[in-house]
Amino acid sequence: MVAPPTVLVVDDEGRSFAALRDVLARDFAVIGARDAAEAEARLRGEAVQVILCDQNLPGACGIAFLRRVRTLWPGPVRMIIAGTDDAEGTVACVGEAGIHESISRPWHPERLLRSVRAAAELFQIQSIPATALTARRASGPLPCLLPARGQAGPLLSGFGRIVHEPSSPVAAVLGLARRAAEYDISVLITGASGTGKELLARAIHDASARAGRAFVVENCGALPDELLESELFGCKKGAFTGAHQDRIGLFEVADGGTIFLDEIGETSPSFQVKLLRVLQEGEIRPLGAQRPRRVNVRVVSATNRDLMAEVEAGRFRRDLYYRLAAFPIHLPPLRDRPMDIPAIAERILGEVNRAFHRRVAGFAPQTLELLARHAWPGNVRELHNEIQRMVALSEDDAPLPAHLLSPAILADRCAGGDRPCAPAARTLKDRVEELERRVIAEAMERLGGNVSHVAGELGLSRVGLRSKIERHGLRRGAGATDA
Ligand SMILES: Nc1ncnc2c1ncn2[C@@H]1O[C@H](COP(=O)(O)OP(=O)(O)OP(=O)(O)O)[C@@H](O)[C@H]1O
Ligand SMILES: [Mg+2]
């Protein structure tokens, strides 16, 4: 029903292409090209979200091809696959061609799939929903949607991707993160699952002096120690069972750039010792290698645990904690920033419309109200799923009606009534804001979006009401009129 994102695999070696295709076909539409010319022809003819390119192409090198792609088609997220022989040259050029991730052979199917999924997600994030922009441009200041530096096209970078309202606690968090980005210090991002930790880590990298170099992600929670160490620090062939080839470590791939160590709180004591040594000494020793290699990497790590509590409980090394958390940043859960929900929901709807080739025209006011009232235990990720589901169930050219919401969210309506938005506001100001938003949303819904009538009933001027509608991120319904 829904078209999966398209990945273009550029690889001239039939067996290698088939292996990549078999894994990627689980989640993606896979198209192939044997050389640069064929790949360009495909890019001219098809909408591609991710390009996965072999470093060794007939008559060309993958990096040179991706550098050219970057100029001609800046949209697709670029990834490269290199064998150990090419790894060094590849690593040196990664930043230059704006390559999102370098994957070394032999690759691990699950990890490959995860990396390409992340790349497809990045593609979505980078696309500003045209609807959100035009709606907002037409009606004055609200947006925290900053166009990327020097980019006229529909791409966002850095902090501009993190949607929030000026009154949101996230505004203060981003203020801190911007300061942290300026200095080469390690940042620890804490926050519940789906609050945007990885998005913030990328923003810090993009805003730092290392922006032109690689940003490399490792999920430390998903792998046994040996594999994690060989991925991060590299290994020599035969260093452990399963190490069939030399492998370049992600610390080396990230040299000059940033490494994002996700789920750092899940790591074992023995891994923590090794990581501490790397951070103290600024050098890595690939498993089975004789000599260490110097690396210059900025570390941003993240966890959804209370890492200090883990330290107190003896499960996380205190010395490592202080190495990682020179600059701690906490992302609040969505329930503590309900004012952000309408704008984030609009951004996501734009992304989903693009990904699904749909034209859903926003949210009905009551839908937004219910979205803003829900506690969102899965945070933005859960909101994303909810919107995807609603779009799949809805019609084009109409706002999403409230009855398409999941039962758990609809139930909030019954529980709602006059209760203060329980999970939401903390300060009196937040609560008053939330109440105002709900009163306006309710009146807009009841009076069919007629601004004059709503303004009259609430004792506001039309201009005053319009500015409040904007401030609260309340879209006027399709039938709204000024008459
Ligand atoms: N403020 C925001 N504005 C727009 N999109 C957001 C925002 N926060 C998060 N997202 C989106 O929500 C999804 C989850 O974000 P992200 O992966 O960064 O969260 P996380 O905290 O790393 O989650 P997890 O702990 O589950 O790994 C992503 O698609 C991200 O782009
Ligand atoms: Mg994450």
From TrEMBL:
PROSITE patterns the UniProt entry points to: RESPONSE_REGULATORY (PS50110), SIGMA54_INTERACT_2 (PS00676), SIGMA54_INTERACT_3 (PS00688), SIGMA54_INTERACT_4 (PS50045)
Protein keywords: Activator, ATP-binding, DNA-binding, Nucleotide-binding, Phosphoprotein, Transcription, Transcription regulation, Two-component regulatory system
Annotated Sigma-54 factor interaction domain residues: 163-392
Domain Response regulatory: residue ranges: 6-120
Record-level Gene Ontology MF annotations: ATP binding; sequence-specific DNA binding
UniProt record, GO biological process: phosphorelay signal transduction system; regulation of DNA-templated transcription
SMART domains reported for this sequence: AAA, REC
Keyword ATP-binding annotated: yes
Pfam families assigned: AAA_lid_14, HTH_8, Response_reg, Sigma54_activat
Residues with PTM 4-aspartylphosphate: 54
Protein name: Sigma-54-dependent Fis family transcriptional regulator
